[in-house]
Amino acid sequence: MKSVEMGKEELGRICFDCNQFFPACMGEATEFGVCLSDEAFESYIDELLEDRKTASCQKLVDRRKFSGEREACKEFEEVEEVEIDDNSPIGLALSRFNETGELDLESLEADMLKEHIRNIDLKSIPVDEYAASMRSSDPEERDSGITNLVGLISFGNKEAFNELFEFFTELLPPTTLAEVHFKLELLGYLNRSDARTLLIPELIDELYQTVSNNTTRQWISEIFRFLANCPYEEIYEPLERMLSDKRFSYRLKAKIKRILDL
Fold first, then answer.
1. CA dist 111 to 89, 103, 187, Å?
2. What predicted TM-score, i.e. pTM, was given to this entire model?
3. What is the mean pLDDT of the chain?
4. How do the domains of the chain map onto residue ranges?
5. Which of 72, 3, 4 is nearest to 35 (CA)?
6. What phi and psi, each to the nearest 5 degrees, are found at residue 34?
7. What does the alpha-carbon distance between residue 202 and residue 76 come to, in Å, rounded to a whole number?
8. Which 8-state DSSP code applies to residue 198?
């Protein structure tokens, strides 16, 4: 594990050591840079931080740049120490630089992006944006939101599951094949989570609310298939009550009996 203080040398409080110091050129090693606290760059901060090579203030940078060896001012903000794993993309890039003395900036930028993605905690990343997309009236945007939430569910993001689960419970019982297929798709996604047993009361209610016919047969069969794979103690009572309900046909009650091994 490398312990790196970016730009840090044993020279005391100098601009190189300051968090506000920004290199004047990203294409080659340089001792010159500008101060992001400089009011002259106030309207260019986002450009500089997002993509230095496309920033529109290069002439201003050339005019305002100074040596990083300069003694720091009273606004000095010490750069925090950064721990870099030797086997991480950045760690490997720095090792190559130490061995060859050459630094491929485009590759380094790609490595930094990989490192950033690797360090994202997907279990706790906010999902509001994806939840909003899921509720869009635009089918493509809706599907995109669902896909992103499903991806986060696979990484154990509980909030992503909660959002998709709530969306699922808001849907009315299906009456068309398109609605049946959509609910089957959502159930398949939710079924991948460790919290899948939360679906049990919702699916029991779905059996009471869904009209049984040729269109909904596949949906009802899938619900029973799901329940059959749930803990017996959680499904016994609600399914046992359904056996005495006249709303359910002999065929459906036969499925219930097979699940309960009656």
1. 5, 12, 37
2. 0.55
3. 79
4. 2-84, 128-260
5. 72
6. -125, 165
7. 58
8. G
